[in-house]
Write a sequence for this structure.
């Protein structure tokens, strides 16, 4: 299914200038086209679902500390807030917890949700804990050995984030799947 994402502007690369009035068309897991909204609407409008966002569409964030955030940090379950608080735990606080593999997997899934809410579409591993590695693989986040530019290009993967004028993430898309949407 084709989806036309209409936004305030499209930024093709990190640090690049935004192109006001541009949009992207997603076909499957790929970007089919990037260009002025009116041109894309004329070419794809009758066949595409249209999503409108009040923000700037950019390549997703890259998280260089992915392994530390998911394998050396515990993200408390909401049911543990009274006992542990809601902020991630590291160091002595983490060492005091009983951490079987299932608890690491659940923590990683909560940590991944936090990353997706910031527009993250790629991170660095390696992930040595099997439950964490499985959670990362299932999330769709791209695991990179180090930072590399991931500009948006027609034919490239439909991995991007949309940021509001205040800098908060409105939506994160990985392989055309809307994996985070701000409420």
């Amino acid at each position: 299914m084709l989806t036309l994402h209409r936004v305030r502007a499209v930024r093709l690369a990190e640090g690049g200038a935004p192109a006001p009035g541009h949009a992207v068309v997603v076909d499957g897991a790929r970007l089919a086209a990037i260009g002025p909204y009116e041109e894309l609407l004329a070419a794809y409008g009758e066949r595409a679902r249209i999503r409108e966002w009040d923000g700037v569409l950019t390549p997703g964030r890259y998280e260089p500390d992915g392994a530390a955030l998911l394998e050396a940090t515990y993200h408390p379950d909401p049911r543990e807030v009274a006992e542990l608080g809601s902020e991630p735990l590291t160091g002595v606080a983490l060492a005091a917890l009983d951490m079987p593999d299932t608890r690491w997997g659940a923590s990683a899934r909560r940590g991944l949700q936090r990353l997706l809410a910031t527009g993250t579409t790629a991170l660095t591993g390696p992930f040595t804990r099997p439950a964490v590695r499985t959670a990362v693989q299932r999330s769709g986040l791209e695991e990179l050995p180090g930072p590399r530019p991931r500009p948006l290009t027609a034919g490239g993967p439909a991995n991007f984030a949309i940021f509001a004028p205040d800098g908060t993430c409105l939506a994160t898309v990985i392989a055309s799947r809307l994996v985070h949407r701000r409420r």
